[in-house]
Amino acid sequence: MSVHFLETDKNHYDHVLYLIIATLEYYASQDVISPTISDLSAAIGVSEESILESLEFGTINQRVPTQ
User: Which fold has domain 3-57?
Assistant: First the structure.
C-alpha cells in the first residue's frame, strides 16, 4: 500500500466528514430530528460504510462551517 493511496483515502474521509457536518448543521437549522446514517447516505451520496469510516478516520479542519 503506497503513501499516495493512504493520503487519497484520508482526503476522502475528511471530505465526507465535512459533508456530514454540513448536513447535520442544515438539519439543526431546520429544527428537525437528526438524520439516520441511511438519511445521511442519501443526502450526501456516499455509502453508509463510507460514512462510518469517515466518522472514525476523518479529521476536521478549517473548511468546516461554524456558527
Answer: Arc Repressor Mutant, subunit A (1.10.10)
